[in-house]
Write a structure and sequence with these properties.
Radius of gyration: 20 Å
Largest sheet: 4 strands, parallel
Number of strands: 8
CATH topology of the largest domain: Rossmann fold
Strand content: 5-15%
Number of helices: 11
Length: about 325
């Protein structure tokens, strides 16, 4: 299939401290993911928010190495998938380099005529996969519709994805002296409650993933919470920090956090969980707080992506 390529769609992240401000501005001006006031006013409000948030966010990136690792990790996933499939695999980011439009132009120059666009968000939401596909459609229109397009919009219940999560959880549990005393906390990226009220399937898909994983793991006490809120609207509950306080009050002292809706390490795992929530857990008296390794380029996860692409090509 020399004329076919895979395009992995991801949010992206700043690749230096200087990139933090423009990355945040791209994020906060996108009404498909964050709606702030009327449309005509959002760019102005976004600039004010970004001016205030940039120093705080820069400090967090400085603590995890001065940039997001998401580009290198996603490109690593693309390289592993390319080796698995034997066809070109590229990366298109939503809010920072390599932007989706740039990736499309490079594929066009290579003579690619058909693209399998694979969203790296396991659970569909209009704010993530929806936004990425809308952006992809706009960039394709700029190129005159140069490609045949096949879309893969979710894989929250794919058996290989569930298997990959179970493998990582078992690896995490093995690090505890007495795994039978450990409680699991699934922490998914939050979403405004209004999205769910308007029919967004994200929450149902998150719950399905948790149910499928726990069916494989058996009798372990587990919980679900939501992290990374931003803005004054009502978000999904319970929030992860609130759940930590509840667990500490109930006597939990061995906790393993399982990031959901994230398939690679970035600021929400490396800082929000590993630094912020870890410090809060210690202060609350939770003796051991650990995180499950992210999927990144787990062979089982890469096989999941390969099977998704193979099935999509077979049915096209």
């Amino acid at each position: 299939m020399p004329d076919t390529a895979v395009l992995l769609l991801q949010m992206g992240g700043p690749d230096s401290l200087d990139a933090v401000r423009p990355f945040l501005l791209n994020l906060f001006t996108d009404r498909e993911i964050i709606r702030i006031g009327p449309a005509w006013l959002q760019p102005f409000i976004a600039r004010m928010i970004v001016r205030r948030r940039t120093p705080v966010v820069m400090a967090k990136y400085r603590e995890i190495g001065g940039k997001s690792p998401i580009r290198e990790l996603t490109e690593g996933q693309a390289a592993a998938l390319q080796q698995e499939l034997g066809i070109p695999c590229a990366v298109g980011m939503r809010y920072w380099h390599p932007f989706t439009g740039d990736a499309l132009r490079q594929l066009q120059q290579r003579g690619v005529a058909r693209i399998v666009a694979l969203s790296l968000y396991p659970h569909y939401s209009r704010a993530t996969t929806g936004s990425s596909f809308n952006d992809l459609d706009r960039r394709l229109a700029e190129l005159g519709g140069a490609f045949e397009l096949i879309r893969i919009s979710h894989f929250y219940d794919h058996p290989r994805y569930i298997e990959a999560l179970v493998e990582q959880i078992r690896q995490g549990l093995a690090g505890f002296p007495d795994p039978g005393q450990v409680e699991l906390l699934f922490s998914a990226h939050s979403l405004p409650q209004a999205f769910i009220d308007q029919g967004d399937p994200y929450l149902d898909q998150i719950r399905s993933t948790v149910r499928l994983v726990m069916a494989r793991l058996g009798d372990i006490r587990y919980h679900l919470a939501f992290q990374s809120r931003a803005g004054p609207v009502k978000w999904l509950e319970p929030a992860t920090d609130e759940k930590l306080r509840e667990l500490a009050a109930s006597g939990c002292n061995q906790l393993l956090v399982v990031p959901l809706s994230f398939v690679s390490d970035h600021i929400e795992t490396l800082h929000e969980i590993d630094i912020e929530y870890a410090a809060e857990a210690r202060a609350l008296g939770i003796a051991t707080f650990r995180r499950v390794p992210s999927l990144n380029s787990s062979p089982t996860f890469i096989r999941c992506l390969a099977e998704l692409v193979e099935a999509a090509l077979h049915s096209s």
